[in-house]
Design brief:
The protein is an alpha/beta fold. The protein has 25 helices and 21 strands. It is an enzyme of class 5 (isomerase).
């Protein structure tokens, strides 16, 4: 019944139906579950109960004659004072010039808008003469377009709820409704669209938050189970004695977090299923060592290993680092686009006959000509930088190899269990002892001259500096213009004693590699750059990071940039140049100076920016929930995850009749699940 066309609803003709289609509403069900994105509350409360900077409705008398001022083309500002009880509140209305004729001193008015408690001022978005007598003090606000007005959508919605609301079937088992005191699905839909009180709306939202999280987590758990069943791999029987001997030969002791992550990876390697694990940890936490020991484990079991990284210079550094670490124990080869001719042919031959134990490279590793003898283990560094297809191609090169993804972007637990619900996650949340902490300072723009002096001093003392340009939203062109201008300025300031380099996103990969090589070799002392240096190269001599207009960057991005320094023996510094206007910007700068813990910063960043912006919209792969918010509703997310694991583990979807509607709902997604599997 609910899958019928939206035209079945009284009052919806062909034209309105086509407009609703533009909003993604095709069926009656689509309409009923097209929830408001916010609610306007017209409930009048005493001034003492209002919250600063939140929407409020006030009722009172006009105390001063409204004053009207024009600015710009057809833009106006109307202000008056209204008496609310014993308080005088200033009311500001933009582009409501017509209201001046309607309002006289002594008139009773009701106004709604953002309330500034400190200035006793309300910026009104709604106003009406007379008392607040709205029958619906809470009004839903829907996402609409120019063809569908909110009033029209509300009217159609009311009709749909009246006609078809009772047809909405329950999907949650009765035990869960009782356990969490959740309203029935049909009742919750009604209260989402036409809430009679804030309490009923709160319970309806709570119900759909849990339902969305549970369905999503069940999908993830099924995907993980299906992945494991469909991807029986090879059990790698590594030589524990050789591994222990190697770990003991390292010039440092592994941290507890490294030991824990290594144990999780080795356990996966022994399992008959293919590993699909994410290893995450802060810059400098020692992920590479854990990955190296794991690769060595694969080699001791008679397999080859591969390490894929985003850039040539990073591949070169990893290969050099692994050779230093393993010495004669392993044969390590480097394969990038620059390796050509005889050397390339030799590597291909040695890979195919099994002479090479570990191959390090860029996406060159996934080219068709590269054939492994017996690939058993793959490490993919900075995994979000590679597309799904690239990762899949590399996986398919081996005999169902184990896959370990690595990222230096610490991901909050909330996000990790949601974004990577189909992967196992290991976290190295502890830094090696003795590592010098990067000292971070926030300075205002007027101190730029002093900062330039500090850069000079650092370089003269033998260090090197990164200078990051301001970020212009949505404009690569302006970003580059900024970088070029700053580069020219600094070149003038430091000429002729200090060499300044420039890097930005429009340079070719070869040009970027060349500049990074020159910086790495200290032929460039100051590197001016846009954020393209965020993930990348180890320059142990770089000891200073200066970020212009730092308040324009998110916390995680600032932390990643800061992680470019502090990789050598020198004491390193990070200077945030910023004059933030809002409280959020000031808060970000303050947190950056207080901690270098990437996990704490990522939690704060998630609270401030929300999950969609965390990896960048295109990268995130996060589900778009209609009601649930994984940051604010993280307790419900944890509960749903626990419940989903229990349901799958006990096979209740198949064995328990009360789970049938939920199973049917999930069944519709099974095709998508199949597509997600390799």
């Amino acid at each position: 019944m609910l899958e019928q066309s939206v035209q079945q609803i009284k009052g919806v003709g062909e034209k309105l139906a086509s407009y609703l289609n533009e909003l993604g509403i095709y069926t009656i069900s689509d309409l009923l579950f097209y929830f408001p994105f916010r609610y306007d509350e017209f409930e009048v409360k005493p001034l003492t109960e209002l919250v600063h900077n939140e929407t409020a409705t006030l009722e009172g008398k006009v105390a001063t004659q409204p004053s009207l001022a024009y600015y710009g083309k057809k833009k106006s500002r109307l202000t008056f004072t209204m008496q609310v009880g014993e308080f005088a509140v200033k009311v500001v209305m933009f582009n409501r010039a017509f209201a001046k004729k309607n309002l006289e001193t002594g008139d009773v008015v009701t106004v709604t808008g953002k309330f500034d408690m400190h200035r006793l001022q309300l910026t009104a978005t709604h106003f009406k003469k007379g008392e607040a007598k709205s029958e619906e003090p809470i009004q839903p606000v829907y996402s609409v377009n120019e063809n569908v007005k909110i009033a029209a959508l509300r009217k159609v919605m009311k009709q749909a709820v009246e006609e078809y609301g009772s047809e909405i079937e329950e999907v949650l088992p009765p035990d869960y409704l009782d356990m969490y005191k959740l309203p029935a699905r049909s009742k919750a839909v009604r209260h989402m669209h036409f809430p009679e009180s804030r309490i009923l709306l709160k319970h309806a939202r709570r119900r759909f938050t849990y339902e969305e999280f549970l369905v999503f987590q069940l999908r993830m758990q099924l995907l993980r189970k299906k992945y494991k069943e469909a991807t029986s791999g090879t059990s790698l029987h590594y030589d524990n004695g050789l591994l222990t001997e190697f770990v003991q030969s390292l010039p440092f002791t592994l941290t507890e977090a490294q030991k824990r992550s290594l144990a999780e990876i080795l356990k996966d390697m022994k399992s008959p299923h293919r590993m699909n694990r994410l290893l995450q940890g802060d810059v400098g936490s020692g992920k590479t060592v854990v990955a190296a020991i794991s690769m060595y484990g694969a080699v001791t079991s008679g397999k080859q290993a591969a390490l894929m990284v985003p850039t040539e210079i990073l591949a070169e550094q990893h290969a050099a680092s692994l050779r230093r670490m393993f010495g004669e124990r392993l044969t390590i080869a480097l394969l990038t686009g620059s390796v050509k001719g005889k050397r390339r042919r030799d590597i291909m031959e040695e890979m195919e006959n099994g002479t090479i134990d570990v191959l390090v490279g860029t996406h060159a590793l996934i080219q068709e000509e590269v054939k492994f003898n017996s690939l058993g283990f793959i490490v993919i560094d900075e995994q979000h930088r590679f597309g799904v297809e690239q990762r899949r191609t590399l996986r398919e090169k081996g005999m169902k190899p184990d896959v370990l993804f690595m990222t230096a972007t610490p991901i909050p637990r909330t996000l990790a269990i949601t974004a990577f619900g189909d992967m196992d996650v290991s976290s190295i949340d502890q830094m090696p002892s003795g590592r010098k902490e990067i000292e971070t300072y926030w300075v205002k723009g007027k101190m730029t001259e002093r900062v330039l002096g500090f850069i000079r001093k650092e370089v003269e003392d033998g260090g090197q500096a990164y200078v990051i340009c301001p970020l212009i939203e949505e404009s690569d062109k302006l970003d580059i213009q900024n970088a070029v201008e700053l580069f020219e300025q600094l070149r003038e300031v430091y000429h002729p004693d200090i060499t300044v380099g420039l890097m930005h996103g429009k340079l070719s990969n070869e040009e970027k590699e060349e500049i990074m090589h020159r910086f790495s070799d200290n032929r460039i002392q100051i590197l001016v750059s846009t954020t393209v240096v965020e993930v990348g190269v180890d320059v142990p001599n770089a000891s200073l990071m200066v970020i212009y207009d730092a308040d324009r960057f998110g916390l995680s991005q600032l932390h990643q940039l800061r992680g470019r320094v502090g990789r050598g023996e020198r004491q390193s510094h990070c200077i945030l140049l910023a004059d933030p206007k809002g409280e959020t910007g000031k808060e970000r700068m303050k947190i950056m100076t207080e901690t270098t813990d990437g996990f704490r910063l990522s939690e704060e960043d998630l609270k401030i920016r929300g999950p969609g912006d965390f990896f960048g919209k295109k990268q995130s792969g996060l589900p778009e929930f209609k009601v649930a918010d994984m940051v604010h509703d993280y307790r419900a997310l944890e509960t749903a995850r626990k419940d989903a694991a229990e349901i799958i583990e006990n096979g209740w979807l198949d064995r328990n009749q009360s789970f049938e509607p939920l199973k049917e709902m999930l069944r519709r997604d099974m095709e998508k699940l199949d597509e997600s599997l390799d």
